[in-house]
Specification:
binds heme C; 6 helices; mainly alpha; about 55% helix
Length: about 140
């Protein structure tokens, strides 16, 4: 009787140990993929480039090259599209929402999706540029 319980216990313990090492190996893979694969950047909740001067400069180039300025203005002050530098937003301006808006666009509006022109890494750089232009209430910064 006790032998059987002990056997079960050992079997479970071994299964857990095995699972632990597999899970650990998996996490390692994700870590290394993060540096190279855009897919991981796309799944991030937070912009890895917020405040990064080099990324902001690249984001500004992409902003001009992609033509965001034609609707949002040269420094995102607003035009056909809304200003992106004040603290009035259509939706709660989390990093994820901005990313999704730029990648997929807003259905039923002229805001198109840009995932064919910009890869996830570039989208985050554009978001970093937009954040760098912010002139709204500092207390309303949620990113
Ligand atoms: C053809 C005009 C047009 C272009 C070009 C354009 N946008 Fe927009 N954008 C809009 C409009 C209009 C909205 C408002 C959509 C809505 O009503 O939800 C918008 C919304 C947004 C928002 C969300 C604003 C909010 O308050 O929620 C972001 C961020 C944004 N655009 C970024 C960009 C970026 C980055 C680019 C370039 C890659 C770009 N847009 C290109 C017209 C444009």
């Amino acid at each position: 009787m006790i032998g059987k319980v002990l056997y079960r216990f050992l079997a479970v313990a071994m299964a857990l140990a095995l699972f632990g090492s597999v899970a650990h190996g998996g996490a390692g893979d994700i870590d290394s993929a993060e540096q190279s694969s855009g897919d991981v950047a796309a799944n991030a909740d937070k912009n890895p480039y917020t405040g990064d001067e080099t990324a902001i400069k690249e984001g500004r180039k992409l902003w001009r090259k992609t033509g965001c300025y034609s609707c949002h203005g040269g420094v995102a002050e607003g035009g056909v599209g809304p200003s992106l530098i004040d603290d009035e937003w259509i939706y709660k301006p989390t990093d994820k929402t901005l990313f999704k808006t730029i990648a997929e666009g807003r259905r039923g509006t002229v805001m198109a999706g840009w995932s064919k022109e910009l890869d996830p890494d570039q989208i985050w750089k554009v978001v970093a540029y937009i954040r760098s232009l912010y002139q709204g209430d500092p207390d309303k910064i949620i990113w």
